[in-house]
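Thread amino acids onto this structure.
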């Protein structure tokens, strides 16, 4: 996925630690303030980034198009924006209490 700026007023920002070529697609909880996301896709041609967005979108019940990697496309440490959802709602849904 490529970076894009949103015109939506409601947006959440997540810091993600991605693990490509994992055994399954899953959110593995919080790891040092970052959401740990494991995906089966390899880290080539944006496949892992697309898989990370898909896993997060499914967990939050939003369309895949509402989730985008805005920083760290070639890194395990990514910044992901989720449009149409407030930050508090995202943190509640993904168990942010665990990260504290």
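Threaded sequence (100 positions):
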């Amino acid at each position: 996925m490529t970076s894009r700026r949103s015109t939506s007023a409601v947006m959440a920002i997540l810091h993600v630690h991605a693990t490509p070529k994992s055994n399954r697609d899953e959110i593995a909880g919080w790891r040092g303030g970052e959401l740990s996301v494991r995906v089966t896709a390899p880290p080539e041609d944006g496949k892992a980034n697309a898989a990370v967005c898909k896993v997060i979108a499914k967990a939050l019940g939003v369309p895949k198009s509402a989730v985008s990697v805005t920083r760290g496309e070639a890194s395990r440490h990514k910044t992901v924006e989720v449009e149409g959802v407030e930050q508090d709602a995202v943190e509640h849904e993904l168990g942010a209490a665990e990260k504290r």
